[in-house]
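cache lookup: miss for this entity combination. No prior model stored, computing from scratch. Input as submitted by user K.M.:
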Amino acid sequence: MKTLKIKASSHEYNVTIGHGIRFRVQELLERSYSSIMIITDEVIESLYLDDIKNTFSDHKMYTYILPSGEAEKSIDNYYKIQTKAIEYGLDRDSLFIALGGGVVGDITGFVAATYMRGIDFIQIPTTVLAHDSSVGGKVAINHELSKNMIGAFYPPKAVIYDIDTLKTLSDAELRSGYAEIIKEAFISDHHFLNELLEINLNDLTSEQLSEHLYKGIKIKADIVEADEKESNVRKYLNLGHTLSHAIESELGYGTITHGEAVAIGIIFALNLSEAKYDTILPVKAYIDWLKINNYPLNISTIKTENILKRMKSDKKSVNQVVQMVLLKDIAQPSIENLSDEFIMEYLTSFLKELKEL
Amino acid sequence: MKTLKIKASSHEYNVTIGHGIRFRVQELLERSYSSIMIITDEVIESLYLDDIKNTFSDHKMYTYILPSGEAEKSIDNYYKIQTKAIEYGLDRDSLFIALGGGVVGDITGFVAATYMRGIDFIQIPTTVLAHDSSVGGKVAINHELSKNMIGAFYPPKAVIYDIDTLKTLSDAELRSGYAEIIKEAFISDHHFLNELLEINLNDLTSEQLSEHLYKGIKIKADIVEADEKESNVRKYLNLGHTLSHAIESELGYGTITHGEAVAIGIIFALNLSEAKYDTILPVKAYIDWLKINNYPLNISTIKTENILKRMKSDKKSVNQVVQMVLLKDIAQPSIENLSDEFIMEYLTSFLKELKEL
C-alpha cells in the first residue's frame, strides 16, 4: 500500500493505492458521518458495491445507480441525485462516495460541491483513467454544447485506489487510462516516457500498473499543488485535450473513449510542436506504440471546420482564440495561443494522414 | 459614498454604497474583461439596465432577462443562463453582473461559481433585502423540495449599491429588507435595535436608509469574515430563518416575501428563547413595530406538522434534529438543537396566536 499526500488550498488529503483496499474504506477515513450515499454505475454496482457497503458498520447507507457512459454526466442526473439526497435526509455531516470511473467521480464531486453549498466526498476510482480525474479537485458535468462546462474546484477528502478493481477493465478502458499516463510522462518525465513506450498493454503486470499509476498521480499532484485553479502550469495537463474535446463532442460522447481521443490529440499537439518550434519529437515511436496497442486512429467522418469551431469554444480559449499545450521538447510544455490559420493549415492534413495510419 | 472592505478567504472585495453610483460601475471595477453578461429581471430591466450598460465602453455586452420572483431561482433558469453564456462565447476572462434583488444575485452568483468552474461576478443590488444576500458569498438556486439547497460559497468581486435604485421599491419589498436589518440588530447591537424599533418605514429618509444599510452590512461583514463557511458564528445570521424557510416553502415561494417570513420567524425564535432561557425579550415592542409597518402576520392556512417536517429537513439540521438560533439576550445569540416535542409545544400555540395579532 502506497500513500501520496495532496495539499489542496482548502485541506490536505491522501491518495492511497493498494491491493484489496476497497475492503478497508472505513478505516481509511478520518472520521465518521451522519449518513453516506454511494454513487456508482450499473456495471460497478454488480462488481464492487457490496464490498464497499460492507466495510461500514453503524452508518446509514444509501446508493444511487447511474447508467454507464459519458452521456450520464448530465444536468438531469445531477438534479436527480440531489433530489434523492434530500429525500434520504443527507445533511451537512453526510458523505458522498464516488465509486467508479471518471463520469461517476465528476458528477458525484459536483453534487458534493453544491449540495447544501458543499459537503464531504471521497473517490474510489475503478478505472485507470480515473487516476487523473480523481486527483486535483476538478469536478463537473457536461453541458450539451460543451464538455465539463459546468463545475467547480472541489477536492475530495480521500482517494482510495484498489488496484484489484482494475482487473475487470476492457482493453478500450485500459487504453483510455494509459493515454493520460503517457500524457503525464510527455509533459514532465523523459525517462518515464521511454519506459511506457516499451510497454505492450496486453502483457502488463499488476506491479507495473501500480507503479505507473503512482508515477502518473505523483506528476499530477505536483502540478496541482503548484497551481490548483489552473492559472498557469496546471494547463500543461491539457496536452492533447483541446483537440480531444472537440473530437469527442463532434463524434458524440462515448463513440471512442476519452483517453483514446486524447491519444489522437497528443499526435496533433506533437505535429504542431514540431512545426512551431522546429524541434524533433518521438512522433513515430508514439504512433507505433498507439498502433501496437490498438488505439483507434480513424476518425475520418468528422469535418475540419466543425473541429476548429469546437476548439475555439474550449474552456481554455479567451476571445475565441484557441489555446493549446505544445512541447518545446519532452518535459518542456508551453502554452500557446494559435491563430485559426495556423491550426487549419495543419489540421486538414493531419485528419487526412490519420486515415492512412 | 461609503466603502466597506470584506475579506473573503479567496480574495478581498469592496462594498460601495452611494447615490447614483450605478452610473460609475466601470470605474469601480479593478480590471477590464473580455466580455460581460448582465443578468437581471424584467422589472429592473426597464428601470436600470441601460444605466449599467452605458457605463461600459469597449466591452462586448450581453444581457439575460429573468421573469421576476423566487420561483425563477430554478435549475431550469440556471441551465438556460449557462446555455446563453456558452452561445455568446463567454470565457474565463468574462464577467457576470447580477443586477437586481436576491433572486438575481443568488442565481447569477451560482452560475458564475460553476461556469467553466468559476469566473468573476459582481453584485449590483436593487433591493434593501439584497444587502444581506449580496455580501458574504452565499450563492444558490432552489430545489423544488427545499430552498437554496443547491449552491456554493463564492464571493463577488465587488458589490455596488446605488441607494437611488431603492426609491422604486414597493412597501412589501421595503418590509422584506428591513426584517433582515432588524435581525442583524437583534443578534449584535442593542442600540441599533432600539433605533430601528422607533422607525416608521413610511417616513424613512434616504439618509436613514443609507445608514441602516451600512450598519447592517457591517454587522454581516464582521460575522462572515470570522466564519465564512458557516461552521459557527455565521449561523447566528439564521435567526428567524428556520421557521421562515418552512413557511415560505409551505405557502409556496412568493406568497409572502422572504423578509416578511423571516419577521414571523423571529417572533417564534423570541418566544422559544424566553421559554428556554427564562429571559425577557422585547417581544411586544417588536410585534407592535411589525404591526405599525403592516407586516403580514396571518399565515393561518398552514399545518403545524408540515412546518415541523420542513424545519427538520432544513440545511442546518443534522440527523433530522432541528437547529435554531435563539437569543439569551439582545446581541447574545446561541445555537440550539431542539427536540421535536419542545418545538411542537410552542409551535401550535404560536400559530394560533398569530391569527389573533
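stored under new cache key. Chain A has a mean pLDDT of 94.
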